[in-house]
Design brief:
Elements: H1 18-27, E1 46-49, E2 54-58, E3 63-71, E4 109-112, H2 123-128, E5 135-138, H3 140-143, H4 146-159, E6 162-171, E7 176-177, E8 182-183, E9 187-196, H5 201-204, E10 210-217, H6 236-243, H7 253-261
Antiparallel strand pairs: 1-2, 2-3, 3-6, 4-5, 6-9, 7-8, 9-10
Length: 266
């Protein structure tokens, strides 16, 4: 399937390179949740654009505020997991660069936001998911349990002929690792919009379009590895109230109100 929706998100080429504009148009086709911008003078909400995903990075917390990506069948292939966790060289030079060792011996996983298995079409795309700006500290029971199960479920939907628009991140604080440089969120959250694969995506979303949202505790005491991810479903409105973000701001208000107020039951 040829990459689509390039024209759905109008971006100034003066502010972004041509390729960046294409990736913004794909991954942020549904909206920029907190008006993040590629401005070093806003280090708490710094927009970073990659071919594979787009994210708002927080220099003060050492983690992304949110990560957004679009997934359809063209992103999935047979490439093996890269496993090369590393600092993100595209951060401003004078900022602290979180590295693989930042999480060592902390008891927390290097938790992917955009999953490695969502980017298996090329070695380059898979490798990008191992940049540390795509990670948050995740409790193993969260990361390896219901969080991972929801990721697998999302890919199953794609294999069934769906395409997804996903935002995720962490919220709250239960302390820091790496000598105070990397915050440990209290919860992890995710919002997902599900469409049949096709073109002109913004025009195809209706009040009955399926959405999925979850909020999960990021604490081994409060979540079990064998917990069903469905236990943690909430409405998108609930995630927006928690985070202060607006996830699908490019949709008509009537459509937003309908799809964001329901709790998925499928």
């Amino acid at each position: 399937m040829i990459r689509k929706i390039f024209f759905l998100c109008i971006v100034s080429l003066a502010a972004y390179g041509q390729n960046d504009s294409l990736f913004l148009a794909e991954h942020l086709a549904m909206g920029n949740p907190n008006s993040a911008a590629a401005n070093k003078n806003a280090p708490g909400n710094y927009l970073m654009v990659k071919r594979q995903f787009v994210h708002s990075y927080n220099r003060f917390l050492g983690i992304p505020n949110w990560v957004a990506w679009h997934t359809d069948s063209t992103w999935l292939g047979e490439i093996k997991r890269n496993n090369k966790f590393r600092p993100d060289s595209t951060l401003p030079e004078k900022w602290y660069h979180v590295h693989e060792g930042s999480y060592r011996l902390t008891g927390f996983d290097r938790g992917h936001m955009c999953p490695s298995a969502d980017r298996t079409n090329t070695p380059t795309d898979n490798s990008a998911t191992f940049l540390m700006t795509n990670m948050i500290p995740q409790a193993p029971n969260n990361n390896q349990g219901p969080w991972a199960a929801l990721e697998i479920y999302c890919r199953e939907l794609v294999k069934q002929g769906k395409e997804l628009y996903i935002y995720c991140g962490g919220f709250g604080s239960q302390g820091f690792i790496d000598s105070g440089r990397v915050q440990i969120p209290e919860t992890t959250w995710k919002t997902i919009l599900v469409l049949d694969a096709g073109d002109h995506d913004l025009l195809r979303i209706t009040p009955s379009t399926r959405t999925i949202a979850v909020v999960m505790p990021n604490n081994n005491v409060l979540i079990a590895k064998n917990s069903d991810w469905r236990m943690f479903r909430v409405s998108i409105d609930s995630v927006e109230a928690l985070t202060g973000y607006d996830f699908f701001g490019k949709l008509p208000r009537k459509v937003q109100s309908a799809i964001e107020s329901v709790v998925d039951t499928q």
